[in-house]
Amino acid sequence: MQKIFEIAYPKKPIKCILNYENPSAEDTKPSLFFTHGAGGTLQSEAIVNFVEGFISSNTSVLCFQGNMNLQSRVKMFKVVIEDHGNDAPQCLGGRSMGARAAIMASSVDTSHLVLISYPLHTNKDVRDEILLDIPEEVKVIFVSGDHDDMCQIKRLDAVRQKMKCQTYRIIVQEADHGMNVKPKTATKPVGIKIGQVVAEWLQTSSYGDNGEGTIYWNQDSEAAEWTGWITDG
Question: How far apart are CA 200 and CA 158, in angstroms?
Fold first, then answer.
């Protein structure tokens, strides 16, 4: 189910879509506030697939449409959150630039961050400062494709070791920055599986320190599969 609405914002209202399966979720605070990447929309395949998997675990996700300006996206995040009240811990998330905005919009009320295809590095810059500033009480999950040229696995490993907070990571086998995998028909089921695993993590998030697992396409069974969590303790 979807509830589409707008929130007042200077120049142009913010388009929001509340996604849920259980009708009772329409009247409760979203499990996750989420936004898309710089060049994407709420209809981007990676967003649609993730949302479908996420809400299948009796959770809800409020996605909002933003522009390509990072600072503006951060302000939009705060307006959307304030519109739903600050009376409970919040989980914020986003894809690519949206993940950066989620971190920058986080506050003392933020309990979890969902960072999908976090753009850790360009040819020149490493965007690790805001990751290192995340408070230790916040739990963070990264979802990264092992073919993502903007977030190499080893470089993210080095940053995670320096972060103060507890971190988790889902490695998506053969996925690029857009979470596309081969064969093309596997992209949707893999994206749905990502949403399911993230929702399960959000509901539990007690898998030990620095948990990590892999989502992959099983050619034999023609299904997306999850290895489960491997942790340090």
Answer: 26
